[in-house]
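re: that chain from earlier
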Amino acid sequence: MGNIKDTKIKTYAREIIKKFPEEVSLDFDENKKLLNENCEIHGKLLRNRIAGCIVSELKTKNNNYENIKRELYENKNKRKKRKVKEEGY
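^ sequence. v structure.
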């Protein structure tokens, strides 16, 4: 059995996944660096738990991390194309 995560940690992890979809990864250490650079988190334990929760969220989300990244990238490109069409460039 695994440990049960606090709901605050889960919500912080999900917010970070939404804010930085292209920077988060399945690597725990890269997520720790991302949190250090972009978020004000007081305490090493809290930072590590959030970074670990990000990894577990990405692993369990459809069990296919690459598809999630590809969908986010495609959506971003669609928005750019729409913006270019609207502006007439």
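The chain is about 70% helix and 0% strand.
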